[in-house]
Structures are given as structure tokens and as C-alpha cells.
Amino acid sequence: MMQFKEIDGWRVIQESTIWDLPEEEKRISSVLKLSFDELTSPTLKQCFVYCSMFTKDFEIEKDDLIQLWMAQGLLHPSPNNSDLEMEDVGNQYFNILLENSFFQDVRMDYYYGTIIATCKIHDLVHDLAEDVSKSKTKGSNEIRHVPQNSTIDLQEIPKGIVHKVRSMFLKCEVLDNILPRFKGLRVLKLEESDVDVLPNSIGELKHLRYLDISATNVKKLPQSIGKLYNLQTLRMHELELEEFPKELQNLINLRHIHFEDWHADGRYPVGMGRLKNLRSLSFFIVGKERGRGIKELGGLKHLKGELSISDLKHVRDGEEAKEAKLAEKTNIRRLELEWSTDEDRSRVINNDRDVLEGLKPHSALESLEIRNFSGETFPPWMMCGDLFSSLKRLTVENAKNLTEWRTEEAAVFSTTEKRVVFSRLEELLLRNCDQLRSAPTDHFPYCTSLEHLSIYSCGNLEAIPITHGLPSFHKLEISNCDELSSLPSGLQHCTSLEHLSIRHCRNLEAIPITHGLPSLRQLKISFCAELSSLPNGLQHCTSLEHLSIINCWNLEAIPSLDSLTQLRELEICRCGGLKSLPPNAFAASLTQLKELEIGWFWEELDSFPVFQVIPQLETLSLWGWPKLSCLPKQVQCFTCLTSLTIHSFDGMEALPEWLRNLASLKILSIWKCKNLMYLPTLEAMKCLTKLQYIYIRNCPLLKERCNKDSGPEWPKISHIPNILCCLCDGPNILEICEPGWN
Predict the structure, then answer these.
(1) Residue 569 belongs to a domain with what CATH number?
(2) Whose C-alpha in 228, 471, 558, 596 is 20 to 30 A from the C-alpha of 261?
(3) Looking at 109, 136, 163, which one is the last position of a domain?
(4) Which segments constitute the Disease resistance protein winged helix domain (predicted)?
(5) Contacts of 436 (CB under 8 A, 6+ apart)
């Protein structure tokens, strides 16, 4: 409201008597009413009042709300903005109401972080919308809208006014003989209702513009649905339809159709190309049948938002692919292209490349996903700088024959030319590209917007050629890349990097962090068999909060960690080559450390490596090995410990008496200690007054001795509220001691 007021307008508000009201809730309600009165457009006020159709605290989908406003005829572009569509006007109205604090708890879209997906309305704001709605019909028996929480009996609505009902949000079954009475109905929302069958009489609602049957038990649409010529929105989320009637193609005014692809394979609607007014069509499955070919997309020039095209195996060649006219659909922001995986596709390598060439999109695309592509190389447009000037997210998945990401067009450029291909790219994901030898990073020095790079299961990948620092780069994930022997040299210059995760890279020998990464907060390295040392620059990563080194069996040493003063979680375990810890591994400077998992080092060690007491530690997991017969004694000094896990101490027969000192302990877990038989004494266990849970798993001797009532160790734990004692390697629990035994 602030941005639209002049000084005189603010003076009127300041001098209003609402500030003198005694009760706070009344004063707030009056302020809200004043904000409502200040809305300049009567139509905008109607849009706000319509929000009372939803129940309190309901999470409202923004696009759904706009489509409901549109169905009520509330969205009309002004003569000065005739190029605006109704949906654009709805977005403007939504934003005005948001700026005036009528909406709250806004949740952003997952793919487009700047676009609002849902919102809620505060209870007092909802009360205001209800009050205004009721005041408009006060003194008359007129019913125009039936909201979600209505107790109105539809059969009791007088015949003289039933034709004036415009909206019904119902949770009950819709009777076939009732619907035809509501001749003037614009909106019928049956989402999550008890409807099993959509009556054939639905076709008599000639003025219906919005129909939502999401999350119902409807299995089949009646043929009469094809008579809803004015229908603008059809929502069918979470619906398992057996088939789509061919009459669906008669809905020539349909602008938005919503349904998921998980139930549509083989039953996709035919003739979608006739729906020339479509704005929303989230996915299209290409079929062999007439009316399901890719050319159906050709005439849908108004499509916007996201579009997923699957089963591209049914596209004959590049010329047929061009009939989709994707380059002309300039309002599509997210595009997904997917071939199938249900056949041997080695014979269609060249065809896939031709088809992808014909599916060249427009230059304003923001997100592109390519899945199950069988070509060996991409077509030239995949390295076209002009085309990808707006691209922010790029995913290539299951391109199992792709050997290089380089085209004939790219080859003519010299290495001295700055060929910027992904100038605005923020996220790149490569997954299951088995033959790819080098990531498409030749032009990364100029990808100044790149934030996130993820590479998974690219078994032949040998290099990630990042040679310069990337100013926005904050997350790198690499997993299952067996041929990768080193990380890119430019990594140490990526000063904004916050998350680095390396998993299952068995030939990785080095991590080039010489001078430290000042912004790094999380470093995870696991299952890197050839890694013998951690980078010397690790001690200069002073922002590090989580360090995890697991299953690196050739690791022989770790550097000092005393400078990592922000460290909160530390895992160093299952590193069979590690013989010792640095003297000051857990120095007094690590005052933020709360969680520690450590152990399973060199198996010839007969005692746990010495480490310092960490007084503030809350969670500790200790991994043993066959030669160990006792726990490290310094553990008894961890008086703030709330959770202790003891794992694989095969040489240990009894838990130490000093466990009684862990006065804050709430959870004690004992795993795979095959020779363990004795818990601390009953007196010691009674000292653990905060202990609520004890888990004993795969400790056969101790399990036997902890049998309820009959086991000699049972009296020591019978007072503990929650006990689990079992022999299992997974979910097959042989015996569970339920809470409440004592």
C-alpha cells in the first residue's frame, strides 16, 4: 500500500479512529479493512474476497487461484495493455495483494526460485474476506458461491436462485440429477472429494470454465465432457484414469490442462493439436497413433512454462521433429526431452541426433533436460552461444553413447577466442554418461554464473577441465567416476565454493587444495581407494563446518585440524591405512565440534589412537577393529555426550564401568560387537538417569544375556524406557523389546 499513497492519503490513515479501538484484535481487523478499502480496483477487491472460498490455513496454489479468478471473469487486460493475457493480469493482481500483506507463508517454485508457487492467508485476513463476501448478499437469500467449508445442502437451494450459483467447492458426491440445475456454474472444484464417478450430466454445464477432479477416485471421464466448450481449466492431478475420451479435443477454449504422466503411458489424449488456446501442457507423450504424433505440438503456439516430451523413439527423423516447432514457443521456460529405455537403441544412434537437431528450442529457454539420448555427439545447437544466452539449468542423463560434448561448429574456433556458450548457466548435472571422457567445460572460465556442478556415474570421465576460478561456484558433487584421477586444477581458485562431495572415485589420487578454500563449509570424501593423503590446504579452510572422510583405505595421514574453529561435525572412519591421528587433531580450538564419528583404522593397532578430550561433544560414534579390547578411556570425560554408538569392537568382552560418568547420555547403541557379553554393573547403569534408548544389534552373546527376565544382564537395562535387541543386518529384526516392558 505504501508505494501507491500520496501524503494526503497517509494523513487520512493517520487520523483514522481505528487506532483508538481498545481491543488489539479489533484494531488489527480494522486496519486490515482499511487496507482492503484502499485497493483501488473493484475487480481486485473481488479477487481478494474470492480467497474466502478456501478454508483457513489452506495452502493455495498461485496458478490455481489465478485460474479461478479467470473463470469468474475477473481478469480483463486494460486498453493500455492489450497485449497482456488474462493470466498476466492475474499475476499482477496476486502481486498487489501480496505487497499489501494479504498473503503470507509464500513458498517458491522448486525450479524457478524467483516464482511463487503457493501461499496462505492469515486467519484474520480470511475473516475479513468472509465478512466482505457476506455483506454483499446481506438481506437477500442469494447464493453465488459454495465454499470448501460450506454446510449448504445443494438440494435445498431454492429453484429461483440456483441458476445464480457461480462456484462450488465440494467434498461430497455429485449426484447426476443435481448438476443440471446449476446452469450458470462457472467453477466446479471437486479436489479430494468422495466422487467416484463424474456424472454424464456434467456436459450440460455450458458455462463451466473451471473443473478440478484432482485426487478423487474417478477412473473415467464421460464423453459429454467434450460439450464443455467454454472450459478454460481442467485439473486432474493424482488421478488414475483408465482412458481419455477422444471428445477431449473438442474443448477448443481450454487454456490449462493438468495431469501427471505416471498414469498416461499408452492412454495419452489424442488430438491435442486442436486445442489451439492451450497455455499449460506440462508433458506430451509421443505415440504412433494418428493424433498422437509430435506434430500435434506444432500449432500450440501459446504454450508457456514447462513442457516435457517423452517417447521420442516414435519420431521418425529430424524433419518430423521440426513439426513440433519448439523454436517458435518462446514462452516455454523449462524443456525436457526424453527417449525411452525399453529397447536396444544402439541402432538408432544417428536417428537420435537428427531428432534432437530438429527439436532445437528458442533462445529464451531457462532449463533444459535431455534423458536417454543414444547419440554419440550432440547436434551443433548444443554448443551455440546465441541459443543458450538465457539457460540457467542443464541436465544430461543416461546418454550412454555420448563420447564427447563437442561439435563440428565448435571445432572451428581457436583456443584464443572467447566463445561463451553458457553465459548464464547456474547448474549443470551429468548422470550415467558412460562413454563421456571429458566434461563440457572448455568454456567454463566464461561461465561466471555457474553455481552447481554434479557429475554422477560417468565411468570413463578422465578430466573436468576447470582451469580458472568461477566466481559464483559454490557446490561440486562427483560420484562413481572410476577413471577420474584428479580434480580440476582450477578448483583451488573457486573461492566461493561451499560444498565439495567426492564419492566412489576409486582412481582419484589427489585433491588440489593448496592454499585453502575460504568459503568451504562442507567437505565429504568417501570410497576413494587410491587417495593417500588429504590436501595440505585443508587447514586453511577455516569456514569448514562438516568434514567427512570415509572408506578411503589407502589414506595414511590427515593434516592438523586445529585451525578449523567452525567445525561442527567430523567423520574419519573406515580408513584402514591410517595408523595415527595428529597430536592436536581435536585441539581446544575446536569449540564448535558437536558430532564425531571416528575409528576402524589400521588393523594391526592394538589400541585406539590417542585424541584429546572434547568437553562440548554431544554425539560420538566409535568404530573398532578385531584387535581392540577396550574403548578409549578419554571418552569418560565427555560429560555433555547425549548419544554414544559403539561399533565393531570384536575384541571387547565388557563395557567399562566408567560409562557411569556420562551423566547426559540419552541414547546408547551397540553394533556388531560379537564377543561382548557384559554391560557395566547395575549400579553404574542406574547412574545414567537420562538414558532413554538402548539399541543392541548383531551382538549375539550380549543379546542372549539381555533376554527379558531370563538373561543375567536384563536387570541392568529393564528400567530403560525404550529397548531394541536384535540380530539383523537390515530390516529383518528377530526380536524387539517394546517400550513399556518395565
Answers:
(1) 3.80.10.10
(2) 228
(3) 136
(4) 53-129
(5) 399, 402, 403, 404, 405, 430, 458, 460, 461
Does residue 501 form part of some domain?
Answer: yes
Residues 648 and 696 in one domain: yes
Cα–Cα separations (whole angstroms), residue 454 to 372, 431, 523: 18, 8, 15
Nearest to 94 by CA among 112, 110, 116, 109: 116
Question: Is 482 in a helix, a strand, or coil?
Answer: coil
For 594, phi and psi rounded to 5 degrees?
A: -115, -30
Range of 152-166, 405-419, 458-472, 662-676 with top mean pLDDT: 662-676
- With a CB cutoff of 8 Å and minimum separation 6, the contacts of 19 are 27
Instruction: Clarify whether residues 550 and 624 are in a common domain.
Output: no
Residue 666 included in any domain: yes
The H or E element spanning position 352 is helix 349-358
pLDDT at residue number 348: 61
- Tell how far CA 37 is from the center of its chain: 39
Q: Answer with the one of 554, 586, 612 that is the final residue of a domain.
A: 612
Give whole-number Cα distances, 711 to 678, 721, 738, in Å. Answer: 11, 18, 16
Output the nine-digit C-alpha cell for 604: 594391526
Residue in the structure block whose three cell numbers are 572467447: 418
497 with 599, same domain: the answer is: yes
Question: Does 275 have pLDDT greater than 70?
Answer: yes
Rounded average pLDDT over 40-52: 91
Beta-carbon contacts of 628 under 8 Å, excluding residues fewer than 6 positions away, are 605, 606, 607, 608, 649, 650, 651, 652
pLDDT-derived band at 380, boundaries 50, 70, 90: confident
The pTM for the full model equals 0.85
Q: Are residues 591 and 635 in the same domain?
A: no
φ/ψ bin of 698: left (φ > 0), alpha (ψ from -120 to 50), beta (otherwise): left
Note whether 116 and 92 are within 8 A (CB).
no
The CA distance from 426 to 452, in Å, is 6
SS3 557: strand
Separation in Å, CA 605 to CA 477, 578, 629, 692: 34, 10, 11, 34
State the Cα–Cα distance between residues 24 and 729, nearest whole angstrom.
Answer: 60
Which SS3 state, helix, strand or coil, does residue 456 take?
strand
Handedness of CA 59, 63, 64, 66 (dihedral sign): positive
d(CA 603, CA 626): 7
Give the chain's domain count: 3
Contact 609, 584 (CB under 8 A): no
Residue 83: burial class (beta carbons within 10 Å; 0-12, 13-18, 19+) = exposed
Rounded Cα gap, residues 315 and 294, in angstroms = 7
Do 641 and 673 have their domain in common? yes
pLDDT of residue 418 exceeding 80, the answer is no
Structural domain contains residue 349 = no
Q: Which domain holds residue 641?
A: 618-742
Give the span between the Cα atoms of 210 and 38, in whole angstroms: 30
316 in a structural domain: no
Find all residues with CB under 8 Å of 342, minimum gap 6, and list them.
Answer: none
Specify the DSSP element, H or E, that contains 503. Answer: strand 499-503
Here the CATH number for the domain that contains residue 54 is 1.10.10.10
Q: What is the pLDDT of residue 66?
A: 97
Range of lowest pLDDT (195-199, 206-210, 234-238, 592-596): 195-199
Residue (of 627, 733, 715) closest to 675 by Cα position: 627
